[in-house]
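::Encoded backbone::
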Amino acid sequence: MTVFSTTLGDLVTLAGRRSIRGALLPSFVFCALSAMILVVAPGGGNRSLRSWQVAPWEYKVLVVAGFVLVVLCVAAALNSAQTALIRLAEGYWGAAANRTLGRLGRSHHQQLVRRSDDAYTHDRYPPISRPHELMPTRLGNILKAAELYPRLRYGIDTVLVWPRLHPLLPEAFLQTLGAARTDLTGFLGSALLAAVLTLGGAGYLWVFNGPTPLFLMCLWGGGLVAWLCYRGALLKAMTYGQHLRVAFDLYRGHLLEALGHPVADSEEERAHWERLCLFWHRGIPLQPITMPDRPASPPAAPAVPDPPFGLAPSLSQLTVALLTIMGIAGALVGTG
């Protein structure tokens, strides 16, 4: 899925309405709430207000300019980290995390797929014949399903073909695709900032013995906002994935025509895409190779064994439990 993110990253800049909605506005809210917590935590809210009222105008200008600079820096960092943010939300966490949290998340989604019908899993999960493709997060499975679609339908290796197809897409479709990705990254960025504010703000209030209601509001309220933003990202990911499917359905023939190899028969097209992918990936010439007969649909992957544990909670459920325990413990022992 990174191939989609990397190529489309050029469509989104820090200026314009998309960036304001996707990076600048969440960054402003994050910085404003962080500033409020920093002022309120030590119990110096009234003192800070009086100091602001009597401060010279030069000091006020410097404070406002510094706040604006921080907001722009956070927005720029959030905008430049879109690809990494999508990969993080998909579940590409490295070997150590994949063996622990990743295994737990995949076990949960394996059980969920087994209990669900095809109508529910169609756009949300890889095909049931490919359980080894399951990702540990819900968003990762949505995007993985979109990534596997061209391979299963047309024999297209998405990673190899997408960078070559992308320049041939019409401008109107590129704008629609870019807007869908901006909405997705905007919700993910908001969820990330809410999570940082939840942990960082609650930790700051706990260290400085801030008011208990404010501590719980920061911890639980911020966690709720992060979860709602992530749920919004799931809806936008489904829209984004659908646009990617449409791109291959409607415009893959444009790439074959641009290469000088138009085909009309569906079986011939599948074999030709496989030859092209072998040529781009391994340098195997197109003409001398003869592809063996293949079934109309890819063979089913070997079944993945059932999860070792009967109970496989989702990562969201574990997060809710952890935040609940942290809130209760912090309210009892740490805040005033």
Summary: The chain has a mean pLDDT of 81. The longest helix spans residues 212-259. Residues 11 and 283 are 31 Å apart (CA to CA).
